Amino acid sequence: MKEDVSRKPPQYADSKISKKAFNRMIFWFALYALLFCVGVIIAVGADMP
Questions:
Q1: Smallest Cα–Cα separation from 23: which of 12, 13, 14, 34?
Q2: What are 18's strand-pairing partners?
Q3: What share of the chain is helix, strand, coil (3-state, %, to 5)?
Q4: Distance CA 47, CA 41 (A)
Q5: Which residues are paired to 11 by β-bridges?
Q6: Cα(27)–Cα(34) distance, rounded to whole angstroms?
Q7: Contacts of 39 (CB under 8 A, 6+ apart)
Q8: pLDDT digits (tens, 9 = 90+) for 1-49
């Protein structure tokens, strides 16, 4: 039987980023984008008479 020698975590393309780090990056980006959109909505709403 052929034994799987490489036990590395999955990577994306040629980068050194792991799946856990990639998912964490996506989560934080989505959180910051959501907070930005909420801030814009509040600012536009506060500017209306």
A1: 12
A2: 11
A3: 60, 5, 35
A4: 10
A5: 18
A6: 11
A7: none
A8: 455 556 666 655 666 778 888 899 999 999 999 999 999 999 999 887 7
